[in-house]
Amino acid sequence: MSSRPSPLSFSCVSPSPAPVSAPLSRSAVVTTLRAAGCVFAEDEAELLLSTARTADELAAMVERRTFGLPLEHVVGWAEFHGRRIIVDPGVFVPRRRTEFLVDQAIGLGLRTAERTGRPTVVVDLCCGSGAVGAVLATALHRVELYAADIEPASVHCARRNITDAGGRVYEGDLFDALPAGLRGRIDILVANVPYVPTEEVGLLPPEAREFEPLVALDGGADGLDVLRRVTAAAPQWLAAGGHLLVETSEHQAPRAVEAFTRNGLLPRVADSDELYATVVIGTREPAAGEGRAAGPP
Question: Which residues have C-beta within 8 Å of that of residue 144, sequence separation ≥ 6?
Answer without folding.
Answer: 119, 120, 121, 122, 296
